[in-house]
Amino acid sequence: MTKIVLVGHAITAGVLNSYLRRDRRFDVVGLTVDDEFLDQGGVAGLPAVGLSQLQERFPPATTRLLMAVGYNDLNRVRESLFMSVKAMGYGVETYVHPDAKVFTEIPLGEGCVVLPGAVLEPHARLGANSMVWCNVTLAHHSSVDDHCWIASGAVISGQAKVLRNSFIGVNATVVNEVTVGEYNIVGANALMSKDTKSHTVHLARSAEPFRYSSDDYVKYFGV
To answer: ∠128-36-168 over CA atoms, to 5°?
Structure first.
């Protein structure tokens, strides 16, 4: 059983801890964050230590880390912590939930996380320190670069590319052969059918109130 310290101590850490507690391959023994954030979060039952004390409390020789940080600042926080712990001599676990389906022969990037229901089709590429949330599809010959976040239900279609440090929102779709530039934000339900420039934002139109009430809609149109 591999001893794991989660890097992060907020919502993402709580979710990942719940999965790992049911996974007999791993034993989560603690959390780590930058020293200045120690008193701002936590996961019940797990000790938290600052990065300055990490090597003394949980030595690299006996412990591996798992990235459990959110997508703050277009994943720059994840990237910075990933680089920091690597420089401290730690191995960063590549975690694939048992209910995910990975068919690609291409090795997954170090420190990436793939959650239940996700499917990585043949020849898909997933970079280091990227998060693939539940029910995501990375289709054949698609690629997701380092330090990306792919939210639940998103589809990265065949031969599409998501470049580094981008965020793809819930149920968004990147069409075949389209490239999403680096440091992009793609909103929930967005349909990306054209290549994008770096550092751009692409939001789907928000849901608007229909002119009928819900009772009238059911009466005239059904459900």
So the answer is: 35
User: Residue 185's pLDDT is what?
Assistant: 95
Q: What is the CA radius of gyration of the chain?
A: 19
Residue 51 near residue 33 (C-beta atoms within 8 A): yes
In angstroms, the CA 206 to CA 195 distance is 22
Collapsing DSSP states into helix, strand and coil, what is residue 36? helix
Tokens representing 15?
Answer: 């979710």
What is 94-200's CATH number, 3.40.50.720, 2.40.340.10, 2.160.10.10, 3.10.180.10? 2.160.10.10
Domain with CATH 3.40.50.20 in the chain: 2-93
pLDDT tens digits, one per residue of 81-120: 999 999 999 999 999 999 999 999 999 999 999 999 999 9
Q: pLDDT by residue (tens digit) across 196-212? A: 999 999 998 776 676 77
Distance CA 173, CA 11 (A): 25
pTM over 0.85: yes
